[in-house]
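Hi D.,

Good news: the full-assembly prediction came through. Inputs first.
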Amino acid sequence: MNSQPTFLLLADGDFSPMTSKTANSVIRFLPDRVVGVVDREHAGKTVQEVLGFGGAIPVVGSMKEGLAQKPDAVLIGIAPAGGRLPDEWRAWLAEALDAGADLWSGLHTFLSDDPLLAAKADEKGCTILDVRKPPANLPVAMGLAREVDACVVLTVGTDCNVGKMTAQLRLVEGLEERGLKTRFVATGQTGIFIEGWGIAVDAVVADFIAGAAEQLVLKAAPGADVVLVEGQGSINHPGYSGVTLGLLHGACPDALILCHQATREYIGEYRSAPWLKIPPLTDYIKMYEMLGNAVHPTKVIAVSMNTYDLSDEEARAACAAAAQETGLPCTDPVRFDAAPLLDAIVAAARG
Amino acid sequence: MNSQPTFLLLADGDFSPMTSKTANSVIRFLPDRVVGVVDREHAGKTVQEVLGFGGAIPVVGSMKEGLAQKPDAVLIGIAPAGGRLPDEWRAWLAEALDAGADLWSGLHTFLSDDPLLAAKADEKGCTILDVRKPPANLPVAMGLAREVDACVVLTVGTDCNVGKMTAQLRLVEGLEERGLKTRFVATGQTGIFIEGWGIAVDAVVADFIAGAAEQLVLKAAPGADVVLVEGQGSINHPGYSGVTLGLLHGACPDALILCHQATREYIGEYRSAPWLKIPPLTDYIKMYEMLGNAVHPTKVIAVSMNTYDLSDEEARAACAAAAQETGLPCTDPVRFDAAPLLDAIVAAARG
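Then the structure:
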């Protein structure tokens, strides 16, 4: 397999600034390796026109048009609720294998378990990479991550899809510039696509969530000053909170960065039927610190604000309001200078 | 399969009042269906001599002796950390199949995936029941359990293995006597062995922990006044807290019963290398209520105390001290009258 493969992203029917999280992050962090996006709704536009970033990467209306760009792999760029494979896509993925493209997927349904796709991949000599397939023999966590020398920083959120991974990836370079050897630990499909290693902790058997996080931190920590662990979900998310807490207790972070999207009012409102109002940031700080401290001393050191749908002025006001409410440094590290977050991490790592 | 099968319990090397949790509960709740226990260490004793209950059920030193009692099934009665199959047992289980016994297992490693055992079961017409094999197509929880009419009561713990399932099973009859239609929801292997249905929530893929709990409550609630949901783990357990929180948010309990073992000082101290001190009960009440309330209004209504290793006098003192500390009714429902817990549930269900 090419070590820097090019991708055609499949995001049909769900390509937008908030819903197609995997596609958007791959575009954001690996723009030179994306040859196109398949989405019938926005076919004919550029990615820039749909997302507000991503430049001239074309959105195409069929797998055939996309495959004409000769991608090394077709990458599943959206995460349907439950993570399973829409039936309609099976034929498209077979078409991709017929054209000699590998398949990269983070769905809970493993493409390599699909008899049609597995047989075709075999026949064509293509690879199916299911990044959510967990490693064998994960341990039950024993709190071992609390003993590493590196300063472990976990992003925690007010909901899914607020920017927990993006914030971390934005900080690596700045920390390195400040002289701290920094490792990013991917705990979800998108992070693994970008970083090249990791474990999708939401896909492991429930007893081993914390064990997977522990193993990742123990692998990343040697020689590092700072380990940035990608957070998942939210501690009050009705569906995913178990993953969030397992990650918190398995990774034993020394410091937490609370991530929020400024205009989000309800848990999961970027999808359907929201009913659970997002409480104040100070409530999240209490919950994360109380539960984190129950296993390893930790505190929230900064707030990372996602302001993608605000004007510059509104964004600055949202960050100022969060700083005021929490008494913590706050910025949007995608939009503004990440210095407030970087300074907070440097202080935690040297403190 | 016989609907009331008899069991030979395999608990070799780990048969004791605190470690062999599954074996002990099957003995406690289905004593007439247990023909013997395989454990080389205590071979020749009765179960009563090892556990302090269980009467004349014999402990035998080999599978051969146990199979001579003609059990319908061999049931794995201990849960090794991580839930995997010790290599040594494979030959014993093959021996059981050769004798025509079914296999019942709650290990994470599915016996039915073992080529030797699967082939032999097939050859002998025996059944392998892996109760930790999760059902297909579990949903991501959406908070649907908050809408059921029944009063949902979840047991929550200060650690694993403090009596969360036992407390619930002790309460069913008393609640029925008080005129409340009561359903028990099994969420772990032992509860499923005893009740005959349920989902082992610690064995589902992490994203679906809460979804499994939600599905169980939605199935049990129609026609019930009270649904007693078996709790798992502890909210501050370094390995299993994710399962605990997913269950709390998926089941949407209206009331919680906090379970503790009076003499336990450290998380997991019944196993090895304990390091995490169990905080005061009032800390647990804060953590469970804060996190539970984040999704659905709930409160701790009583404390269930496990006093198996205390004298009667010490046990009464431990219950009184917990009641004093928490301001809640407290008893050991195995040892004493369960009335304080029953009254608290009746008040919650009618309140």
